[in-house]
Amino acid sequence: MAEVLLFHHALGLTEGVVAFADELRRAGHTVHVPDLYEGRTFDDLEAGGAYAQEVGFGVLTERGERAAEALPAELVYAGFSLGVLPAQKLAQSRAGARGALLLSACVTEGAFGRHWPEGLPVQVHAMEQDPFFVEDGDLAAARELVADAEGRELFLYPGSAHLFAERGAASFVPEATGVCVERVLGFLAGLKA
Fold first, then answer.
1. Alpha helices of the chain — where are they, by DSSP H?
2. How far is it, in rounded angstroms, from Cα 96 to Cα 139?
3. Contact call for residues 71 and 32 (beta carbons, < 8 A)
4. pLDDT tens across 37-84, in order?
5. Which side of the chain, N or C, has fewer Cβ within a 10 Å radius?
6. Residue 30: which residues within 8 A CB-CB, separation 6 or more?
7. Following DSSP, what letter does each residue of 105-130 receive, concatenated?
8. Does residue 156 contact residue 126 with C-beta atoms inside 8 Å?
9. How is residue 81 annotated by DSSP?
10. 155 — phi, psi (to 5°)?
11. CB atoms < 10 A from the CB of 23, how many?
12. 3 and 21 in contact (C-beta within 8 Å)?
């Protein structure tokens, strides 16, 4: 079984993020879900994004790095949207990473000053017409990350919702979320010990 460090999106540590973590737990995985917003949650992306900008993306990424310090090195780093920043940085820079799961976002491989670690598996999941993912360059970054590399996969789902796996939100897409969870569970089950 895998140990996962899962970072929330710009709405904060919502019930939807916890529900996703619980799906992984039911399959026997250990999942840690730190609160980068220190108790705050938001109902819409604009407000949550404004708060993230106010706090600073660097500060939020550092909070994610601090959350990893108390945990074993052999983690799978996962993040939704904003949470991809600490997840991807840790996957690329912290020794011992077992894999990465990037949902609704992906930054360029060089954003953290290093290449993707050789042999480190990753899955990127997003909706094919998500304007944040497509227009902000995440799709291009994801395609570059997975190009011609074994163990790196990009999954695009029909639709345009950004937080498609956020249960309870208007953007929730149950069918895509179900397939995403199946793929994530397959990814975690296939990791080498």
1. 15-26, 45-55, 57-69, 84-93, 131-135, 138-146, 174-189
2. 27
3. yes
4. 999 999 999 999 999 999 999 999 999 999 999 999 999 999 999 999
5. C
6. 1, 2, 3, 4
7. ----GGGGTSPPPTT--EEEEEETT-
8. yes
9. G
10. -115, 120
11. 19
12. no
- Mean pLDDT of the residues in the chain: 96
Residue with tokens 């919502």: 14
2: helix, strand or coil:
coil
Cβ partners under 8 Å of residue 183, min gap 6: 123, 125, 155
- Predicted TM-score (pTM) above 0.90: yes
Tens digits of per-residue pLDDT, 105-152? Answer: 999 988 988 889 999 999 999 999 999 999 999 999 999 999 988 999
